[in-house]
Amino acid sequence: MGSNAEFGKPHAICIPFPAQGHVNPMMKFAKLLHLKGFHISFVNTHFNHKRLLRSQGPSSLDGLPDFRFYSIPDGLPPSDADATQSIPDLFHSIPEHCVEPFCELITRLNGASDVPRVSCIVSDGAMTFTLRAAEKFGLPEVFFWTTSACGLLGYLRCRDLMRKGYTPLKGKFTVSLCCFHKSLPPINIESKYFDI
To answer: How many C-beta neighbours within 10 Å does residue 1 have?
Structure first.
C-alpha cells in the first residue's frame, strides 16, 4: 500500500473452514469485498496454504498489495500433502488450536505500517473460534455460510429428520440415482459409511 489515503479502507479478515467447498466460496466473497474497496487478509491453514502454493505455483498468491494471504496452524500433525485432511479431526482440532495464532495474526496486522487496522472479520460458519478473537479485539464479525442451498436445508432439517427416525441411517439400503440419469444403476450402501 502506497498512500496514506488508502489506509482509510476497511480491512476484512476472511477465514474459511479448510475444505474446498468452503475456501472457494469465501474466496469469491473476499474478491467481491475487495471490488467494493476493502483491504483483504485471507487466512488459510498452513496445510491448505502450502497445497495452494504447490498446485498454483509459488507466485500464485503474489499480486495486489491490498489482497494478501496469511496462514495459521490447524493443530493437526503433518499428513499426506496431496490428500484432504480428516474433516472430523479438523472439527475437533481447530476450535482448540487456532484461537491463539489467529489473535496473534490480528495483533501483527494491527501493528503493521503497510496495512490499515483490521476493521471486521468474515468467518466461515464452521470457524466459530473467531468469535472469541472478535470479542477480544472489539471487532464486528459476520458468519458467511458457504454451503449450498440444499446443504443448508439439510442442516436446518437435521433435528426433524433425527426426531422422525430418518437419520442416522441404519442397516443396508439402496439409493437409486435414476432421478439424476436413467443409465445410473442403484447403489447399495451400508450405514457404516455414514458413522462419524
So the answer is: 17
d(CA 112, CA 181): 55
From 11, 34, 49, 124, active-site residue:
124
Phi, psi of 40 (to 5 degrees): -115, 130
Catalytic, 92? Answer no
pLDDT in tens, 171-186: 665 554 444 555 555 5
Q: Which pTM does this prediction carry?
A: 0.74
Respond yes or no: is residue 74 known to be catalytic: no
- Contact between 7 and 72 (Cβ < 8 Å): no
Residue 167: its H or E element = none
CA dist., res. 196 & res. 17, Å (int): 18
CB 39 within 8 A of CB 115: yes
pLDDT tens-digit readout, 19-33: 878 888 998 999 999
- Residue 193 to residues 71, 166, 172, 189, Cα–Cα distance (Å): 32, 16, 10, 8
Question: Which is catalytic among the residues 22, 34, 39, 49?
Answer: 22
